[in-house]
Amino acid sequence: MTKTLNNKAWFFVLPVFAIVAFSAVLPLMTVVNYSVQDTFGNNQFFWNGIGWFQELLDPSSQLGEQFLSSLMRTLLFSAIILLIQVPLGIVVALSMPREGWTVALCLVLMALPLLIPWNVVGTIWQVFARGDIGLLGWIVNRLGIDYNYTGDPIDAWVTIIVMDVWHWTSLVALLCYAGLKSIPDAYYQAARIDGASRWAVFRTIQLPKMRRVLLIAVLLRFMDSFMIYTEPFVLTGGGPGNATTFLSIDLVKLALGQFDLGKAAAMSLVYNLIILAICWVFYTVMTNVDAERDRVEA
Fold first, then answer.
1. pLDDT band of 30, cuts 50, 70, 90
2. Which of 180, 209, 219, 205 is nearest to 85 (CA)?
3. Is the entire prediction scored with pTM above 0.70?
4. pLDDT digits (tens, 9 = 90+) for 158-192
5. CA–CA distances in Å: residue 252 to residues 57, 58, 221, 263, 264
6. Multiple choice CATH, 62-297, 1.10.3720.10, 1.10.155.10, 3.30.565.10, 3.30.1380.10
7. Is the distance from CB of 85 to CB of 221 less than 8 angstroms?
């Protein structure tokens, strides 16, 4: 008996494709168009080919040096964020209760920082870290530490890192908590029978079962931290000097501040390719390790 295929369901998907094409593909093609042209205003464009890309990837040029410096600062920031937030999120998730009324309370409290808009987070910490009226700045200065995030690059970096840890560690903790909740009680019962220590339970049961959610957490936090813009821009404006001028801030200044649309378009495309490449490496490596461990366990 031949089964008749019904493809009418595709008609329900077509509006989604149309929206994606309008909101993603068309703007992307516009950026590609700008990246190969130059303009002197009055809506007059001139063909430039791959000139902007060559200048962008040339460390000896001013644009290339600027791009490389911003890229290194952004990569350093993302690395620090991952090294802090992933272990801290795991510790917080392990400390959260598993049952009782306190579970709902902890989940609500952990979700509160995630609900605050990015520009509001930057404004909160801008006031909170001020040495004259901010509680954090006042306490640190009272301890004898000369703290000024608007004038000292190290203070600015520490403030932005602490702000991001406060804002986004909850996401990692909630993902890890979901992974822990999915572990059957039979695993813990077998561990108690074998007399396994707390560290042994974490290493052999909890951590392997959290591998997939940790992959999601690492990818999300890398992409968010690598594309961070609003919070540091509101807090420091990229200063002092260029100490906190990350790639996103540099890109916006180039596009809107200097109105160099060709250079900004080329930088945005390279920026996007870097994010895709690093995420692909993360995903490939971690999934291969996961598959190898599953093969060994089988």
1. confident
2. 219
3. yes
4. 999 999 999 999 999 999 999 998 888 888 888 88
5. 18, 20, 21, 11, 8
6. 1.10.3720.10
7. yes
